[in-house]
Amino acid sequence: MHLTEWPEFSHVDPEQLARRVADAKVIDGRGTLDVEAWRAAGWTVRVLGRAL
Fold first, then answer.
1. pLDDT tens sequence across 1-52
2. Which residues, 6 or more positions from 48, have their beta carbon under 8 angstroms from its beta carbon?
């Protein structure tokens, strides 16, 4: 879950992070992630309040 607008978390490299997790799924509770970049890196992305 991504629950902050802090840039050090909002601008993390999704490709680099995907290599460190077992299941690449993220829920963006603040709507600050670049959904297309995360999906391109192999992540399943859900954004609260949006139908994506």
1. 999 989 999 999 999 999 999 999 999 999 999 999 999 999 999 999 877 5
2. 27, 28, 29, 31
